[in-house]
Every structure is written in C-alpha cells, then in structure tokens.
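Issue 218. Parser rejects a valid record. Input:
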Amino acid sequence: MTDLPLGPEPPRPPQPSSVPPPPPVSPPSPLPIPPSPPLGHPGATLPIAPPVPLATWRWWEAIAIFVLGVLAGLILAILLRPILPGGAMGEVLISFLVYVGIAGTLVTWLAKLHKGWRAAIPFPVHVFAEVWAGFVRGMVVFLAAGMAAALAIKIVLDFVFGENAQAPEQLPDNLTGFAVVASGFVAIVVAPVVEEFFFRGVLFGAFRAHQGFWLSALASSFAFGAIHYIPGPETPPQDAWFLVVTMMFVGFGFAFIYERRKNILAPIVAHATFNVVGFILIMTRG
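Output the parser choked on:
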C-alpha cells in the first residue's frame, strides 16, 4: 500500500535553552562625596555669589545728589555753628556733619526713587569672611598705591614742578585729647562708610551698569581723587596734585575689590584699614 504524503511538517515549539541567561548588570555605585569643611576651616570655600543687580540710576544723577548732600551738610554745620566748639574739635565736627548730609541725602534719594538699591549695593552674608578679605586687601592697596605708586607719582611731580612734592595736611592742627578720638572716628569709620557707599556702591555701580570694569573704575577713581584736592595758599600745587593722583590709584584699588568681592563691606573695611595706617603715621610723625 502506497503511503500518501502528509504535507509539510508543522513547526515545533521552541525548546527551552539549557544555558541560563546572564544576570543583569547593575550600574556602578557612585563614589561617596566627602562633606564640605565648615566655614573658617582652611579648606572651606564660600559659595559663588549670585550676580549683583544693575544700578537703576545714572552717574550724573549720583554726582548731582552728592553735591546736594555736601551742601546739606554745610547748611547743617552753619545752623549748628553757634553751639559747636572752636578750634580743631570744631573742624572735626563740621567734617562729621558734612558726611551726615551726604549720607542722609543719598539714602533718601535712593529710598524714594530707586526702591531696589539695596540689592544693587549688596551687603554680604558671610560678614567675617569679607572683613578679613577687606583687611588683607586694604593692606595690599596701601603698599601698592599708598607707597609704591605714591613714590612714582612724587618722582614725576618733583621733576615737573621742580619742587619737593609731599602729601598736604589732611587733619586739623593741634589735635589733642578728645579731638584725637573724634578725628580718628571720622577718618576710620565715618569716611570709609560714606565714601565707599557713594564712590563704589553708587557711582561705580552707575557706570558699571552700562560700561566695562576698566572705564567704570577709572571714572569713579577720578572722582574719588578729585574730592581729595586741598586748595589754599598753604598747599603748594605739587602737594595738592600728589594727593589727588595718589588717591586715584587708591580708589582704583577699592573699585577692584568691590568688583571681585561683589559686596560693599569689603571695600569699606579695606578703606578703613588704609586710613588706620595713614592716621597712625600722621599722628606719630614728629
């Protein structure tokens, strides 16, 4: 009997493999990150400061308000003149009242017309770190600008004028007793706070909102040097220019500190440090 073809053989179901599949590979565990050392430790680093908001005022507004502040301080001094003591102490108090007029006028103007001024002139979170940074940089500014640059300026002015250039007197004569303390307070505390607030926080900030660092620093430093001009028959021109140009270099150093540290406290402390050294040298000069 002939066998009939049964057609193609149906597919067989797949047979289970005798080789087990490889086990899943787990991703490598990340390396542990060591904790950051606390602030104050030699290896500690401060967090990167966020960008400082731009100033909303213009440089010419700032200068106009500064002049108004000087006038307000002088008017206040005139009004209080009958009750102010005479001599060196009276001169110190007049300087203090002028600074009060400047500070009060600036803060009033900013509070009324520029509500975000506190963010544009920031105060640091880590105060002690900025105090130390300001102190160290203030000493650097004194050595670089107050001594090295001043020596070069003196050599040039001696050649130009044919006379010996030196810094004019910046403190009242015959300071004694409490007048020394008051003069030191104005020079070491009041002047750095008010001058840095205006020349770095307000004026430099106004330029920096529209210009690069170099132009902003040069412009604000020029103004900073200009206010240190001491006119009068007792101040020879070479001495007056010596102080002005030296203070321009000093102001540039403070502007650099403000640019790098991104807060107003560091240049204030640097300025105070500079003035402490200068005040001691003046008072001990025989």
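Fixed in the parser; the record now loads. The chain has a mean pLDDT of 88.
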